[in-house]
Design goal:
This protein is an all-alpha fold and 97 residues long. Helix 1 packs antiparallel against helix 4 and helix 3 (23-42) packs antiparallel against helix 4. It has one domain (2-72). The longest helix has 22 residues, at 47-68. 59% of the residues lie in helices and 0% in strands. The model has no long low-confidence stretch (mean pLDDT 80). The protein contains four helices and no strands. The chain starts with a helix and ends in a 29-residue tail after the last helix. The chain crosses the membrane at residues 20-40, 46-64.
Length: 97
Protein backbone atom coordinates (compact mmCIF):
# COMPACT_ATOMS: atom_id res chain seq x y z
CA UNK A 1 0.00 0.00 0.00
CA UNK A 2 2.84 2.40 0.80
CA UNK A 3 4.59 1.71 -2.53
CA UNK A 4 1.44 2.60 -4.48
CA UNK A 5 1.06 5.79 -2.45
CA UNK A 6 4.67 6.78 -3.12
CA UNK A 7 4.13 6.17 -6.84
CA UNK A 8 0.97 8.30 -6.79
CA UNK A 9 2.87 11.10 -5.07
CA UNK A 10 5.58 10.93 -7.74
CA UNK A 11 2.94 11.49 -10.42
CA UNK A 12 0.83 14.06 -8.56
CA UNK A 13 1.83 15.19 -5.05
CA UNK A 14 -0.87 14.75 -2.44
CA UNK A 15 -2.77 11.90 -4.07
CA UNK A 16 -0.75 9.24 -2.28
CA UNK A 17 -1.17 10.99 1.05
CA UNK A 18 -4.93 11.19 0.49
CA UNK A 19 -4.93 7.47 -0.36
CA UNK A 20 -3.23 6.76 2.98
CA UNK A 21 -5.99 8.65 4.80
CA UNK A 22 -4.09 11.89 5.42
CA UNK A 23 -6.70 14.15 3.85
CA UNK A 24 -5.47 17.50 5.20
CA UNK A 25 -1.84 16.79 4.32
CA UNK A 26 -2.67 15.54 0.84
CA UNK A 27 -4.99 18.44 0.09
CA UNK A 28 -2.36 20.95 1.21
CA UNK A 29 0.25 19.26 -0.99
CA UNK A 30 -2.07 19.39 -3.99
CA UNK A 31 -2.90 23.07 -3.44
CA UNK A 32 0.77 24.03 -3.08
CA UNK A 33 1.69 22.02 -6.17
CA UNK A 34 -0.98 23.68 -8.33
CA UNK A 35 -0.25 27.16 -6.94
CA UNK A 36 3.40 26.63 -7.80
CA UNK A 37 2.51 25.72 -11.38
CA UNK A 38 0.22 28.73 -11.66
CA UNK A 39 3.10 30.94 -10.49
CA UNK A 40 5.47 29.32 -13.01
CA UNK A 41 3.12 29.79 -15.94
CA UNK A 42 1.64 33.22 -15.25
CA UNK A 43 4.13 35.37 -13.32
CA UNK A 44 7.22 37.24 -14.47
CA UNK A 45 10.44 38.12 -12.72
CA UNK A 46 11.09 36.04 -9.64
CA UNK A 47 7.60 34.48 -9.65
CA UNK A 48 8.50 31.44 -11.77
CA UNK A 49 11.47 30.69 -9.52
CA UNK A 50 9.32 30.91 -6.41
CA UNK A 51 6.72 28.73 -8.11
CA UNK A 52 9.36 26.15 -9.02
CA UNK A 53 10.58 26.09 -5.43
CA UNK A 54 7.00 25.70 -4.16
CA UNK A 55 6.31 22.90 -6.64
CA UNK A 56 9.51 21.08 -5.68
CA UNK A 57 8.75 21.43 -1.96
CA UNK A 58 5.22 20.08 -2.39
CA UNK A 59 6.53 17.17 -4.48
CA UNK A 60 9.28 16.22 -2.02
CA UNK A 61 6.94 16.66 0.97
CA UNK A 62 4.51 14.28 -0.72
CA UNK A 63 7.21 11.66 -1.21
CA UNK A 64 8.46 11.89 2.35
CA UNK A 65 4.99 11.83 3.91
CA UNK A 66 3.98 8.77 1.89
CA UNK A 67 7.23 6.97 2.65
CA UNK A 68 6.93 7.62 6.39
CA UNK A 69 3.18 7.07 6.73
CA UNK A 70 3.28 3.40 7.73
CA UNK A 71 6.18 3.87 10.16
CA UNK A 72 4.29 6.44 12.21
CA UNK A 73 0.74 5.17 11.96
CA UNK A 74 -1.44 4.27 14.92
CA UNK A 75 -1.30 0.57 14.04
CA UNK A 76 2.50 0.59 14.10
CA UNK A 77 2.56 2.24 17.51
CA UNK A 78 4.06 5.43 16.15
CA UNK A 79 3.68 9.07 17.07
CA UNK A 80 -0.12 8.96 17.37
CA UNK A 81 -0.23 6.46 20.23
CA UNK A 82 -1.31 7.64 23.67
CA UNK A 83 1.53 8.68 25.93
CA UNK A 84 1.46 7.64 29.56
CA UNK A 85 2.58 10.39 31.90
CA UNK A 86 3.36 9.67 35.51
CA UNK A 87 2.44 12.48 37.87
CA UNK A 88 3.24 13.08 41.50
CA UNK A 89 1.40 15.54 43.70
CA UNK A 90 3.39 17.09 46.53
CA UNK A 91 1.36 18.75 49.21
CA UNK A 92 2.82 21.39 51.47
CA UNK A 93 2.72 19.10 54.51
CA UNK A 94 4.42 16.21 52.66
CA UNK A 95 7.47 18.13 51.44
CA UNK A 96 10.74 17.57 53.25
CA UNK A 97 12.90 20.58 53.97
Amino acid sequence: MRAISIFLNVILPGTGSIRLGELATGTTQLILFFLGWIMILTMKGIGPYAGAAMTFCAWSWGLVSAARADGFSKEAGGADRPVEIETHVIRSGDAEM
